[in-house]
Give the backbone structure.
Amino acid sequence: MPEVLFEDMSVEFPGPRGQAPRRAVSDLNLRVKDQEFVCLLGPSGCGKSTALNVVAGFLQPTSGTMLVGGKPVKGPNPDRGVVFQDANIFPWLSVEENAMFGPLLRERKSAKLRDRAREMIERVGLQGFEQHLPLELSGGMRQRVGLARTLINDPSVLLMDEPFGALDAQTRILMQELLLELWERDRKTVIFVTHDINEALLLGDRVVVMSASPGRVKEVVEVDLPRPRSFDVTDEPQFIEMRKHLMEELHSESEKAEGLKTP
Ligand SMILES: Nc1ncnc2c1ncn2[C@@H]1O[C@H](COP(=O)(O)OP(=O)(O)O)[C@@H](O)[C@H]1O
Ligand SMILES: [Mg+2]
């Protein structure tokens, strides 16, 4: 699995009606190691999605560089799988057809492909729902389809942008545990964006705290908790200690983001 390297990376968006450009990410420096699970944590608007979208190939840096496996990224590629908050699935296709969608753009429909789709569906715990339409599924199940759809491409880098943000608390925990299980299996390089401290600490090898707009790295916390992890780890004194620290960090960044404190 390749590493992802941001070097002094900045991203600007054009300002409204001829105004000066707006910096969404400013001089981001970060090395996400091969097979590492890194969580980007920060207040809304600090540039988390922007940074992720550069890795996905949806955006180009305005200055500095971002390299995947030592190379700049030219555009989106199934080798860098993306999962968003609203599961990227088609409502008119069945679970199985959704799971096969990516590969079908590149290869013919075959028994082998169908087997692969079935395997992915099983891996995300949706066996028995192959022929269901997304409308017939719960939010958590739809997000599982989204995961199957991305994982069938066997990406070497997995990019997740608040994928469980719209789910209720219980479903969210189930999805986090599923993701941990999937990751233990083939340890992809993962960049996971969230504004949820518990989620970041439960999942990540490191938590990168981003400062309020324009986003840059404020602090990096090594999450030294044993793996494989489950939700039980959230009761550990070490977890509670790290959570307290991150809450203070995030609180001060959110105040800045809301204009309550001068940066
Ligand atoms: N396509 C765009 N055009 C103009 N401004 C944008 C665009 N995308 C994001 N921004 C701005 O960049 C900043 C960072 O946005 P984003 O990366 O979405 O933050 P986050 O994901 O941390 O909430 C915000 O101020 C947002 O309004
Ligand atoms: Mg975002």
Observations:
- Residues 13, 22, 24, 42, 44-50, 213 surround adenosine-5'-diphosphate (ligand 1) (CB under 6 Å).
- Residues 84-154 form one domain.
